[in-house]
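Predict the 3D structure for this chain.
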Amino acid sequence: MTVKPLKGQHHVSAITADAKKNYEFYTQVLGLRLVKKTVNQDDTSVYHLFYADERGNPGTDLTFFEIPNAGQTYPGSRSISATSLRVPSNASLQYWKERFDQYGVEHDEISHQTGRATLAFQDFEGQRLVLVSDEHNRGVEGGVPWEKSPIPNEHGIRGLGPVTLTVPEALQTAKVLTSVLGFSEKGSYPSEVEGQPDIIVYETGEGGTGAEVHLEERTDLSPERSGRGSVHHVAFRVESEEELYKWIQVVNDLRIPNSGFVERYYFKSLYFREPNGILFELATDGPGFEGDEPFESLGENLALPPYFEDQREEIEAKLKPLDTKEA
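Done. Predicted structure below.
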């Protein structure tokens, strides 16, 4: 079965215990647009919030499931340990550092990784995030920041950058990335932890900031205990539904346990876990977020896929009100 290469990151889905504070941080501090306020399709009693560029272009979505009773995260291995967000330039990182100081956001100093300037920071729940400069990017194009964002366009977040996977045995995950998903090894850089192997960089499609996975082997860590501030899964871009069915056949032929085809309405998906237990999703680029809301009012109201509309009253009754309309 011949499949087209994956096109890079599609979205990253994480966990929050407080949808209201989450909304305020990601829209008012980070300047992302809430492009969809919906529910977790596997548990409609909780919100699923999608933050992205102006219209939720593939590769720009950082999403959150609200789990109000989610406990503290105890970081460790078998995890997606960092999510990066692309900004236009090295100068943008200085802008963001000053903004983080203004808003009391915990952050590190600006540093360099694989030839790119980066700035690591955390949200109010300890979500591990990294801003990465696109100044020298030669790969997948970034998205388009929303014109109503509080962030100046020249410094606005353009989408997802590399994700870091932290595992106890890198070889097993590497085999899935290369032999199953078609990534290629691009390079490496030293671990910040003494005595640990170099972090290996893998890329797919056009490569560049929006199409990399950084694989970190850590033999000194226990498995992560996930909660608020942790990442649930990472999704990679598939061009079309036709291509997704080919990927399903590939995964089935390799006898990898998987979800089969999953209808998410805004995209179509396939889920499976790699040997270290990290959840991967393959998701189609379309149809996108404007099938049930116009561009101008994306994210302002509770959107439900058609197959949940007959349950709207019941679903809304279980959700705490969340005002996401612009003033």
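Residues 9-318 form a domain with the 2,3-Dihydroxybiphenyl 1,2-Dioxygenase; domain 1 fold (CATH 3.10.180.10).
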